[in-house]
Amino acid sequence: MSREPFPFQVDDIATLAKSLRARLVASEETPGHVELLNILAKSAGCRNFQHFRANAKAREQLAQLPTMPPPLQAPVDFVRVKRLLRHFDQAGRLIRWPAKHSEQQPCLWLLWSRIPGRRILNEREVNESLNAQHSFGDPALLRRQLCDSGLLVRTPDCREYRRVEGRPTPLGLELIRQLARSGAPQASPAAAS
Asked: Whose C-alpha in 1, 80, 148, 189 is 20 to 30 A from the C-alpha of 155?
């Protein structure tokens, strides 16, 4: 009977050693072949060796599937970017909220890029960040729009806010770049990548 090889890899060898030691100490006698395979599989995060083997086969099958090409980026319409720039002053602050939804979305990406990422903020901190980015005095509108579009999440009691990490749309990314070139405040590093 031929033996099928299954590569064995764990993220942390110290966890593997602790798990092996605990299971071997708990065993009254030396474990057999199948029991040792199950111990190793459990140390790698699987339920048993059969689960480990099924995962290895599935991983191998997935590796053989043809990979999809990366999605093509839509070309940026620079006429739209120029139209969007009308909503900003020389300092890169939003001077009016666009009436069209198609113009609001790239502006939301710009506002999103200037909110601190990977931090929990309270409502006052979010308002301070938004007030620094617009001059028409309605941070509640902007905060609500960011939450409704999924770029900002908040707890049900509205005490904690967190920026949702993501990649801006091509139009939003170009707006961020254009305003950064004009000397406006820089977007956070995660946003411009």
From this structure: 189
